[in-house]
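Hey, I was hoping to borrow your eyes for a little while. No rush at all, and the record is pasted right below.
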Amino acid sequence: MELRPTAPVPRGRSRRFLHLGRAVGEMAASAAADGIAQLARGQKPVLSDLMLTPDNARRLAERLSKMRGAVMKVGQLMSMDGKDVLPPEFAHLLARLRDSAHTMPLPELAKVLEQEWGSGWEQRFKRFSFNPIAAASIGQVHRAETHDGRTLAIKIQYPGVRDSIDSDIANVALLTRVPGLVPPGIDLAPILERARLQLHEETDYVAEAKALQAYRERLGDDSFLCVPALHADLSTPHILATDFAEGISIDQLAQAAYPQALRDRIAGALARLAMRELFEFGLMQTDPNFANYLYDAARERITLLDFGATQAVDAELAEVLRDMARGLRDRDRPRLQETARRVGFIGERDTAAHVEGVIDLMLLSSEPLRHPGPYDFGKSDLFARVYTSGRDKYMDRGFTSAPPTDIMLMQRKLAGVFMLAARLRARVDVAELFAPYL
């Protein structure tokens, strides 16, 4: 976990816009200098290439990390969804935003704690570490020990984050119009709206506490997966107290030191969990950020974190998705057309050619479901093929309708699980995982 130096959380739309504008200004100045240098060498510069450079990615990531909140969430979502959308170096550097941000200065932190817990709050703890163990877009996490022997993770929301969500998204939408900042043909509107909705959910710590408890009950006693217990006596609308969990972010297991069998087991367990969320729990944690999974090697367990983006799964919708999965397994195009229309992948005004294209893309995306035996995500170029196919068929013309937000979030969760499998170079028998539910 990388922690960055302290920096106050900027407050107010104009001040936050100024921070974001500086980032774009720095990128534009760098692009102009590089463009002049290329012209001097007799080359013809391409604006998007000048803007989307590793140096500019560092500048942007640094600014977003200082701002936190909605703008940082957009960077996180772009890094999750950015394979073959952004240049690899740019997407890689934005990925640093997934689990690291600038932390609050001590006076700002102390003020938040006193507002939430009252004067003399420190007397409730045997130890409270003012050095955070994690910091991300919504808040930072501290380790604490109570006098009655509990070791806790205290998640503290950044001040003003909830109030700045809508204005942050509006600011980002305005700045995406800067020439060269967004690659041609890429529509960021769905990502921005997704970030806005998700931020509103994630900043409601009362709702997250309820979701955490509900999810923990549904998971039950699992030998490999666990959810930290909530400590309601120390939780408030802006603080969430849970059991402290040891471990490393699960994507670190991609290192060569970890055996193939372990990587396969972990990817398989999380893919199976996604099936249970959809078809058994009726409850899905829809943020597949890799930092939300911690692997504890000593206990050989995965701890599941962050239930701010948890949504209920309607039983009727689950049945439609089950029927869609059968259609994908059997290459049943009439069934796929019907179920795709019911969930919103196909609109009433879509042409026959567009409908066929959507079904083609669905079948391509579901390749692992029809693969006999374990699918080797590490050797597959499926994500690149899906992106290229979607871009070639639809991006220039656009979709006539967008799927409902809940479907988009579920889709992102499932895609995120398989992106993790690719990161871990894991082999997963996807057909076997789906079989009990079809």
User: Anything to note?
Assistant: Confidence is low (pLDDT under 50) at residues 1-5, 80-87. The chain is about 50% helix and 10% strand. The chain has two domains: 4-103+160-202, 252-438.
